[in-house]
Structures are given as structure tokens and as C-alpha cells.
Amino acid sequence: MTRRREAELAALFETASELAGMRDTDAVLRSIVRRARTLLGTDVSYLSMNDPAGTYMRVTDGSFSPLFQKVRLGLGEGLGGLVAQTARPYATSDYFADARFNHTNPIDSAVHDEGLTAILGVPLKLDSKVIGVLYAADRTTREFPAEQVALLQSLADHAAIAIDTASLFATIQSHNEAMKRAEEAHDRLTDLVLRGGSSAEVAAAVGELLGGTVEVLDLVPPNAVRANGRAVLLGDEWVCAVLAGSELLGGIALSGRRDLTDADRRLFERSAAVTALLLLLRRTVAEAENKVRGELITDILDGRDATGLVARARRVGVELSEPHVVLVADGNLSGATHYASVHRGLAGSRGRDVVLALPSVSTHVAREVAKALDATVGACGPVAGPVAIAAAYEEARRCLKALRQLGREKDAATMDDLGFVGVLLGDRADVSGYVRSVLGQVLDYDTERGTELVHTLEVYFRCGANLSRAKAELHLHVNTVTQRLDRVTSLLGDWQSPDRVLEVQLALRLLRLQR
Fold it and tell me: Is the pTM above the cut of 0.70?
């Protein structure tokens, strides 16, 4: 599915580029029809243009019937006449068996002579006016799914603009100054499309061309939305909705030019169409990239080939060999995906939880994520490399479970933050890791020097922290016991504070159970 969408997107880019470079209307129409047949993989494609009497055949590709190539449809007649009349797409898997259409003898004869069975037709619209119909047809029965209808309609939308642009150039040949500005606008807007410019760049370019100030809008006045892609004058400002089909993406506003010629108004409206195309392309690219980032997280956690994962991550701008903090949250995936994309990280789902790997040397980022996603977040790190990220995920997940059990909703923490509580509440708790985190330095000291600091601590606590009883059980002088406890303090810091002493006792108990 992803490869097919990429191929379709590349084909639409190529089409837009080819159409943008054409000035001859006939060449534009031939290119449109050829592209339609290629993109949908049909036997025949064709295009009819409207006039007051109906719609007449203008260009065909793959057709062999002279009768079909000269057919004319009145408004409401046949599939094409209905599309031209209603400005809506229509598709049929079997034209002759479809009672929705007004079958006339000339039309049915022409379709029969061409041998067509399945037909899809979409309108070519300029503003609210239908100027023609673009078709894709097969000589055998087939269905046209929604994505193919949308694809042909997208091509038709490009075609309508290209046809209008070609007609506009033909109309203004005698007006050199206007033509020069239109050519400059065409070249600049085409360049912006081909190099994936931003909507702000389109606004700046059009503002310069029109001698005014163009601003991109998030909120569009209702009057502009109802104008369906036409520019409307609101006060001293021209406003045009940015639309992708029926989807409102925003708008653009032009100030400083209250009086616009028809050519300048059309240029302003073209800039809205270009802005819509760029926004759609950016959204498509972002969706594809986010999908790749989600798949990367899944493969990292599944323990796939580490070398391959590092290379794949680099292709989306993520360097897994750098320190990353791993977060497991109960927030929404779309918000996490956006956050990770902005911060050059990865995000994906694992069961009911969301997993993020963000480049950072501090787990403090967990609190920022908890606030941004309005979520509870367990954290671990920083770590580097796919294997370490997968291991850190397990600890972050246990930390999230402990936070939930503590009722600390919308909070963020690491297992170190939770201390012994994390050991008690986390599932599949890392007991050895906890013991090492609390007593590691004392254990290492005993191993390296053959001392008995751990045993001294156990006896000390067993005797209720009473030095006299402890020295008797250890058969040592009280000063020796005190020296050993002082050594523990030098290794662990203030281990006798209320919170720390509880952790040390728990670690000793777990150590004894392990032994």
C-alpha cells in the first residue's frame, strides 16, 4: 500500500511538473488523458469539454472507434452528461446494466462501438463551474475504489488549473506586462511546488508579485469558505479559502491591494491551490515518516538486526548511537508521534501504551512529555543503541505500572525516583538491579578487601540498631563495629536517614533471599 501511494504521489508530482511547463492547451489535454490512463491502469481514458449545449469529446487515449471519438453528450445524458450536470464523480462497473444513467441511442452506440463496460468520470472544475469531464474506462467489468476516484479527481483538479492557465496565457498574449508577471508567478510557484517549499514562502512570493502583503490563515471567515476557492473582498482585504476537495486546510489573505484585476485575482486564487497542494504533500510526507518511525520502535523492541536498525533510523534523521531516554506513556499516539518528530526521536505503540525514544542525556525530559501529552510517563535512560533501548523499555514500562498503582496520574518518574516502591509495585521487578543500586559499593568493597561490611549491617539491624548488642553478636569491640559503620557511611552517604535506612534494610532482606 505504501509503495503504491509513493508511486502515485511521484506520478502526480511528475504530472504537475509537466502540466506546469505547458502553454499549448491541446498539449495539456493530451498529457492529462495519457496520465489518467497510466495512473489508473485502464484500457481507455478520455476527456470531454463543456459548451452551452452539453459536453463533447476532445481528447482520447487508447480509443480505436471513430464514432466514439466524435460523440457529443447533452447535459444529463449518459454518465458523462450526468457528471457535467451535477459536478459530482460517477462510476459504474457495467455501464449498459446501470439504470442510473439516461441511455440515448447515439451515446450507447458509441460506447458499444468502443467496447467499454466499466467507466469512471470526474468533473474538471474551475471555481464552481464545470468545464469538462475526465474519464477512465475498461473494456471489462471492474470496480473503481474510493482511492482511485480520489486519484483521478486530484489529476482533474490539476488539469483544470493547467487548462485555465493555458487559456489565460492565450488570452493575455497582447498584454506584455501582465503576461510577464503571470510567467514570473507561474515559474516561482512551480519552483516552490517542485522543491517542496512552505506555505509561508508561497505567501511571500505572491505578496511580492501582487504588490501587497499575503498572510496564511488558520481560521477562515465563513464567507470565504462558501466561495469555494474564489477570492472574496472582506473590508479592505481579499481572502481565499485553501481547500483540498471539500476539506478546509486554512486560507490566505491579501492586504494592500483593494482593487485587483481579473488576472491578479486569478493569480491570488492559484496561490491558494498551490498552498493546498504543498500542505497536502507535507502531510503525506509526515504521515509516511511517522509510520516509518513507528515501525522502527516496533522492530527495536522486537530485537531485530541492530545494524540495520541504526541505518534505517539515520534515514529519518535519528542517530541511535547517541544517548536516548526511553519513555512509556498512556497518552495518545498522534500527540506522541508529533512530539517525537519535532524532537528528532521515535514514537510508536506497544499494546495499549505509547513508547518514545528521545535524544537526551537526562530523564528530566519525561516531565516535559507528561505535560505535553497530558499523560503518565515511566522513564529510563539515557541509553544508546537498539539493544539498550529495548532493555530500557522494559524498565520504563515497569515504572509506568508502579506509577499507576500509586495513583500518580499525569506524573513522570524513573525507577530510581521510586526507589524500593518500584521494586514492590513493578511487575517482573529487577531485584538484583535494585540491590546493586542500593548496596553495590558496599558489596564491591567486601569482595575486593575481604571485609564483612554487609554482614555487619545485617547484624546491626537485627539487633535493633543497638551497638552493644551488635558488638556482642559479632564478637567485636564496639569501636570496630563503629568503624565498620563509618566505612559504610563513606561508601553510601547518609544511609541512616528514615527513607534511606528503609531502602537499605529492604536491599539486605532481598540479598539474603537471593542467597
Answer: no
